[in-house]
Write a structure and sequence with these properties.
Chain lengths: 260, 412, 236
């Protein structure tokens, strides 16, 4: 598996897209800091971007890479290598290099602007941690779609739909159900509905760490009470883990049963 | 300063014509070893000069017109026994003394300095620390509270007192005081014609400034920073609030300024910066809000309950999460000639006023008002999208809530 | 060497293999023949474990291959369409496969044989189909394995490379290896194969030596003989 990982990272390092992605984050970081020169405000703006863009880039990059490495996987499948190693290696290669681009691309500008001297280092680390898990989650989801769908156009369509659902439609449905059931106590529902969507969960986890959490008022207090405790945070991180582990498990399960 | 005071005393003595005023000195090696002794021996219009040192005394009652001054900031340590200085006479001046360790009680409001039913007093340049209540004015009139520093160590509301409290007072000036870490920085109850100017009230557990049932008061040029809830003006009328700074009152239930049942007041030239809610209005009528700056607040103005005849003009709303939130009808409140940083209209005739009206209530703000739980979707992509579409073609937000003459540039 | 029993596979409604029974003894050259879509590649991929059979059993060297992967260490496979990761250089591809298999290899002789020295630093995406096939052959023959599976090895080769290929296959056979290949070119098969298997619509129509095929059908020409069995009954 590590050999596959090595070659897929090696392959990605030579791909133009990794650099486009890295450059994009570098520019984003510098422009943000240049525009408001205030680390903590930049962290908030960054959150908006990370929560929407990282999943989008994760899915699209993931599915493109999967389809583009068809020759590579076909070549490997005939070799004495376990199938799960091949796909796990590829997956870790993509998710890992996406995360690396994110961490370097955003970390570098913030370091230059004196991250270590500022109080937002923990918020920023949480942001990167969440960005990384979102990369892993959405790459895994896109690999799942790719392995079940040999038609590239369809596969691509499904991933975009998946992103649209998670980033936009889900929140629309969430909002509708909150309004429709406003007569009922909605605290528990809100917490569960937030947990079920990694994008919402990430957004809330970051919001609660920032000053802006005060705007959440009573609802925020309920969330704070849940996620603010150690067990709540552990549960939240476990959910994010599950969102990674389950798709990866399904990917490997599918891989073992697929004809190539 | 001492020369002026002495001159003043001299003139005062001439007026009264009796004996020349005496200066009674208090120190370890003086005739008077304690302040109590000096007060007991002094006659009306004498001056007591307390020299540097620490005096462990409490429950000092001043029942005659005296001037009590400290030299090089002597300390009176009340050792947490109870009240320290009580003024029960007119024409008392105290100044330049540090008073510490006021007793805490759940039944009595012990204060560092209490003024009871007195006129023409001056309390100046005092430093009050480790206290329960700081300066407590009770049915006092025509007094001045100047340049004092009040520093508490309050943690909870229930076992802390207020910095400067006015109860049934009239014509008092509270000027250039610095108040920190008490329950309410300045608290007024049934007090009229009070002038509160140039004070700093910060890090207090509850309010920086708190009005109850007090009318015809003015507060200006004060700064209220990082208080538990902000400034509360309640059940009062004809209050003028001018050139104050309300800053960093940040927390789930915090606001810069709370107006509750306020009538006929003016709020002008204030700065509301980085508060969870800039102004929370719960029943205010005929209040004019003009030339205020609202920057980076969660909500700049949040209106609850019925409010009639309010005018918002010349204000600047810059980078607030929500500029305005209403949970009731608009009730002939007027918005005109304000600057809104989110305004994206144009000004073809170059008269400085946008040609397209601005709607300050966002759809999300409207939804949150209806169903508060929906705030969990704060800063989600979906909400940004529908806010944007509502901005482009309004369908849900109230039609009559518009600024028909939005300014193109911030009013300075 | 390879034992296949009652092998079934369908893709959707399309039954590609229907009860294939085969036994390939060690040390021989076997050619699988059949028209397009007869199931040759599927059969080969089943042996490699790339396609999982619906039914039946497959064993290589006496061990069932279901869910196994280590047995592929003794197989060298030449895929039908030589599609390689385009952004790799030939040299990098060779060293990557060597690294992945971790087995001793002898590629320098083969590179010389197919005159690939000047292509080593070229990216695979820039190579012509024939050159790719040569690279493919190098990858297949560079490891010393007891079983060679060649899916259409002659595709795109020039005559001299074809001669080299035949020589290579014979050398391998002399070393006691088992070679399984599929091809459309009858002349090539006739020249090289010890036994042929004829596959049509997922069923075995014939298995045996070329001579026995000729005898059976009474045709002297292999192509005609093949055509004859395709139209008549099963001769196993």
């Amino acid at each position: 598996m590590f050999k596959i990982l090595k070659y897929s990272v090696y392959d990605l390092m030579r791909s133009r897209w990794s650099y486009v992605y890295l450059l994009f984050y570098l520019m984003l970081g510098f422009v943000l800091l240049f525009l408001n020169n205030d680390l903590s405000k930049a962290v908030i703006t960054l959150m908006n971007i990370i929560v929407v863009l990282v999943p989008l880039i994760g899915t699209i990059f993931g599915i493109m890479y999967y389809y583009n490495s068809k020759e590579f996987t076909d070549l490997l499948l005939a070799q004495p290598i376990r199938r799960s190693s091949i796909f796990l290696g590829l997956y870790l290669g993509v998710a890992g290099s996406l995360s690396l681009s994110l961490i370097i691309g955003l970390g570098l500008p913030f370091l230059i602007y004196g991250l270590f001297k500022s109080g937002v280092i923990w918020d920023f680390s949480l942001l990167l941690l969440i960005g990384t898990s979102l990369s892993f989650i959405f790459t895994a989801l896109s690999f799942n779609i790719a392995i079940s769908q040999d038609n590239k156009i369809k596969g691509f369509g499904y991933t975009v739909l998946l992103w649209l659902f998670m980033a936009v439609i889900y929140d629309g449905l969430f909002l509708l159900s909150l309004i429709v059931f406003e007569e009922y106590p909605l605290d528990r529902f809100s917490i569960i509905a937030t947990m079920l969507n990694p994008i919402d969960l990430s957004r809330i986890l970051i919001l609660l760490k920032l000053d802006i959490a005060a705007l959440l008022g009573y609802t925020g207090a309920v969330f704070q009470k849940f996620f603010g405790t150690q067990s709540g945070l552990i549960i939240a991180l476990c959910v994010l883990m599950l969102w990674t582990v389950f798709p990866v498990w399904r990917l490997l399960h599918r891989a073992e049963r697929k004809d190539f | 300063m001492n020369h002026i005071t002495l001159l003043f005393l001299f003139l005062g003595v001439l007026w009264h014509g009796a004996r020349p005023p005496a200066v009674l000195e208090v120190c370890d090696s003086c005739t008077y070893k304690t302040v109590t002794d000096a007060i007991d021996s002094a006659q009306a219009y004498d001056t007591i000069l307390i020299k540097a040192g620490t005096y462990k005394e409490f429950d000092l009652k001043i029942r005659k017109p005296l001037t009590i001054l400290g030299q090089d900031l002597p300390t009176i340590d009340g050792q947490n026994q109870g009240e320290i200085l009580t003024i029960q006479s007119d024409e008392v001046t105290i100044g330049g003394i540090r008073i510490i360790n006021v007793g805490t009680s759940y039944t009595k409001d012990f204060a560092a300095i209490r003024v009871v039913k007195s006129k023409d007093f001056i309390i100046r340049d005092m430093v009050l620390e480790h206290l329960f209540f700081g300066i407590y004015l009770e049915k006092a009139t025509r007094g001045k509270v100047l340049n004092n520093i009040v520093k508490g160590d309050a943690e909870e509301e229930f076992n802390s007192g207020n910095g400067i409290q006015l109860w049934h007072c009239t014509f008092i000036e509270v000027i250039h005081n610095h108040i920190e870490k008490v329950r309410d920085g300045i608290y007024l109850e049934f007090s009229d014609n009070i002038n509160i100017t140039g004070n700093t009230s910060k890090n207090n557990v509850r309010y920086g400034l708190h009005f109850m049932f007090s009318n015809n008061d003015i507060y200006q040029g004060n700064s209220f920073v990082n208080n538990g809830a902000g400034v509360a003006v309640m059940f009062s009328k004809k209050i003028i609030m001018k050139r104050n700074v309300f800053k960093e009152n940040w927390g789930t239930a915090a606001f810069g300024l709370l107006l509750k049942e306020i009538n006929d007041s003016e709020i002008l030239d204030n700065h509301f910066l980085e508060n969870t809610i800039g102004i929370q209005v719960e029943g205010a009528n005929r209040v004019s809000y003009s030339n205020n700056l609202f920057r980076r607040n969660g909500w700049a103005v949040k209106v609850r309950g019925a409010c009639y005849g309010n005018t918002f003009s010349g204000n600047s709303f810059i980078n607030n999460s929500f500029d305005l939130s209403y949970n009731s009808n608009i009730n002939d409140n007027v918005f005109k000639r304000n600057y809104w940083s989110e305004y994206t209209g144009y000004d073809l005739d170059k008269n400085g006023i946008g040609d397209v009206p601005y709607r300050p209530v966002k759809l999300f703000s409207y939804i949150v008002n209806r169903t508060p739980e929906t705030i969990v979707l704060l800063r989600s992509f979906f909400m940004d999208l529908i806010d944007f579409s509502e901005k482009v073609s309004p369908a849900f937000t109230p039609d009559n809530l518009v600024d028909a003459y939005p300014l193109m540039k911030q009013k300075l | 060497m390879i034992l296949i029993e009652n092998l079934h596979k369908k893709f959707g409604k399309n039954k590609v293999l229907q009860g294939v029974e085969l036994n390939f003894e060690a040390g021989g050259i076997y050619a699988i023949l059949g028209p397009n879509g007869s199931g040759k590649s599927t059969l080969i991929k089943c042996i490699l474990g790339m396609v999982l059979p619906d039914q039946g059993s497959l064993s290589v060297s006496g061990h069932s291959i279901r869910g196994k992967w280590v047995y592929r260490e003794q197989i060298n496979y030449l895929p039908q369409i030589a599609d390689f990761p385009g952004n790799l250089k030939v040299k990098e591809l060779l060293s990557m496969i060597k690294d992945l298999r971790g087995q001793p290899s002898e590629e320098s002789e083969l590179v010389k044989l197919f005159e690939l020295q000047s292509y080593l630093d070229k990216k695979l995406s820039t190579l012509s189909g024939g050159t790719k096939q040569k690279v493919n052959l190098v990858l297949t023959f560079m490891f010393d394995s007891s079983l060679l599976i060649l899916d259409e090895p002659t595709t795109g080769l020039d005559p001299s490379s074809l001669i080299s290929l035949k020589r290579l296959i014979r050398t391998e056979k002399e070393m006691g290896k088992t070679i399984l290949l599929s091809s459309h070119i009858m002349q090539f098969v006739e020249e090289i194969a010890d036994e042929i298997v004829y596959l049509l619509e997922g069923k075995i129509y014939f298995k045996g030596s070329i001579n026995s095929l000729k005898e059976l059908t009474g045709e002297n020409d292999v192509e005609h003989a093949i055509a004859a069995i395709a139209t008549t009954k099963v001769y196993v």
